[in-house]
């Protein structure tokens, strides 16, 4: 028995339509290409620093990273080489990695750094366990534990990025961070419009959890989140928690429906039609919760749902939207190549459909 989708379809709203792209993908059977419309792709000349962020204290709060100019989705905020990379010994199956065993490696890597990098590393925030707090010698390990990210072609190494590490957490982040193996850099990008002077935020944890669950996970970083999703009144908080749970269930429940096979029976066709509406409801929930980082997989679901009812025009538009977001992140990633292939395939079907129609009329 297939699971029912968690949405009330009757409350489906058409507001999503208002944000459809005004650009229509050209109908072509030539290989698919797309130009990135970002200020970064232009040869702009300007006076002053091209740096689009600054780390500074903000009133009543500690240090944060703030935008020094307005940023559009996809704009690069920061592309940073790790100052330290640690390749840890192999992890035995089922055994949590003993972080203390990287300490000698970490110390050796640290000792080779320039004075500038050393002080950048030591100035990072670390949440200390009681034992660590009583030991003033070993700041390096807690700093590394609190700030390092998985990097490398297999994502099996740990990298430390002192600039990106200054970006604070939000449960409605306006940036994401992606490791680009080709350049060996971690790239921070805007995932929605960011105004000049606005704080840049990222997430330290998966966001499809209730506030309570998020707060519990964040306590290991030693702070209580006060982002806009965490300071809501009771009713709004419950609505937000419910939306996040519905989104999580929707991603899960859609999984078995994401093939390209066109359903044959009347009942299956009806279900596929309902899935189209549920997929757009998923996008709407993400927009309401301001979870921009989950839009690319959601657009993919909408595209595939339209393909299953043979609406090739809509399948193309939504696949193209997903492709654009993936492309901005990483042109070589599997997800990007998949969306390029799907967009191309849907354009061909759309072409064929139009050709069939013209023959019927003629
Ligand atoms: C940008 O400038 C570089 C160096 O001046 C030049 O090689 C390149 O062709 C320019 N790109 C565009 C799109 O004009
Ligand atoms: C950013 O995070 C640090 C470390 O948790 C904290 O001390 C600081 O107050 C935060 N800054 C802002 C602007 O919220
Ligand atoms: C176009 O017509 C052909 C032949 O009738 C059919 O096999 C094909 O599925 C049609 N394609 C589309 C996209 O409707
Ligand atoms: Zn929060």
TrEMBL record:
SMART domains, per the entry: SET
Pfam family, one: SET
Keyword Repeat appears in the UniProt entry: no
PROSITE patterns with a match to the protein in the record: SET
Domain SET residue range list: 38-205
Record-given protein name: SET domain-containing protein
Annotated InterPro entries: SET_dom, SET_dom_sf, SET_domain_protein
Keywords, sorted A to Z: Signal
Signal sequence bounds: 1-18
High-level lineage: Eukaryota, Fungi, Dikarya, Ascomycota, Pezizomycotina
